[in-house]
């Protein structure tokens, strides 16, 4: 599959005719809402685990030296915490462009964590392992080293990691994978290695 997913995502007709659609964000979409939304609520999806396994050629790295950003992988019993946004369908044009480097829109059940705590069907952007920008598994220490040396048009890769970790902490959510990588990065900085 080509890395640029814009055309594939545009063809999704699941929510055609809807005035509003829920989108679940688990990475930069948690802390960088650079689009209009009608509601923003802490939420989770079940059966998915967050991993820094996706390459970023356009935001936190370059085509020659991609950074590492998050995707989610199916995992029985896992819960991925993030932020749900209620958007007008026109906003997908912006989101499809922003998430074009391998992310596909997938329909999921989103569990809301405030208000009525109900479940709503919505969209999550997932970078599957068959996309051209996929980097796959590495140890959390290796991932921290990779992030430490990467940067792209949206800024240093380390900012992406730190902002995600801060947001999860502010939401009271513990993600062992994200926090372990953050700790390795802090150790690297403190040791003067980077
Ligand atoms: C997301 O945040 O939901 C997708 C991954 C990213 O843009 O960081």
From TrEMBL:
Domain of life: Bacteria
Organism: Pseudoduganella namucuonensis
EC numbers on record: 4.3.2.7
PANTHER family reported for this sequence: CATION TRANSPORT PROTEIN CHAC-RELATED, GLUTATHIONE-SPECIFIC GAMMA-GLUTAMYLCYCLOTRANSFERASE 2
Alphabetic keyword roster: Lyase
Alphabetical list of InterPro entries matching this protein: ChaC, GGCT-like, GGCT-like_sf
GO cellular component, one term: cytoplasm
MF (Gene Ontology): glutathione specific gamma-glutamylcyclotransferase activity
GO biological process, one term: glutathione catabolic process
One Pfam family named in its UniProt record: ChaC
Protein name, entry field: glutathione-specific gamma-glutamylcyclotransferase
């Amino acid at each position: 599959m080509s890395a640029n997913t814009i055309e594939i995502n545009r063809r999704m007709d699941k929510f055609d005719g809807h005035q509003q659609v829920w989108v679940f964000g688990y990475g930069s979409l948690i802390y960088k809402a650079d689009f209009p939304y009608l509601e923003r609520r802490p939420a989770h999806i079940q059966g998915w685990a967050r991993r820094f396994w996706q390459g970023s050629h356009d935001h936190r790295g370059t085509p020659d030296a991609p950074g590492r950003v998050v995707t989610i992988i199916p995992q029985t019993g896992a819960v991925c915490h993030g932020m749900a946004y209620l958007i007008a369908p026109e906003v997908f044009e912006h989101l499809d462009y922003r998430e074009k480097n391998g992310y596909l829109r997938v329909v999921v059940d989103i569990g809301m964590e405030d208000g009525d705590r109900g479940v709503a069907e919505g969209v999550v952007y997932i970078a599957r392992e068959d996309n051209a920008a996929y980097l796959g598994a590495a140890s959390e220490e290796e991932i921290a080293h990779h992030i430490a040396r990467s940067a792209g048009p949206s800024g240093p890769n380390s900012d992406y990691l730190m902002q995600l970790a801060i947001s999860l902490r502010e939401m009271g959510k513990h993600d062992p994978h994200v926090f372990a990588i953050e700790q390795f990065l802090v150790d690297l900085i403190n040791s003067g290695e980077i």
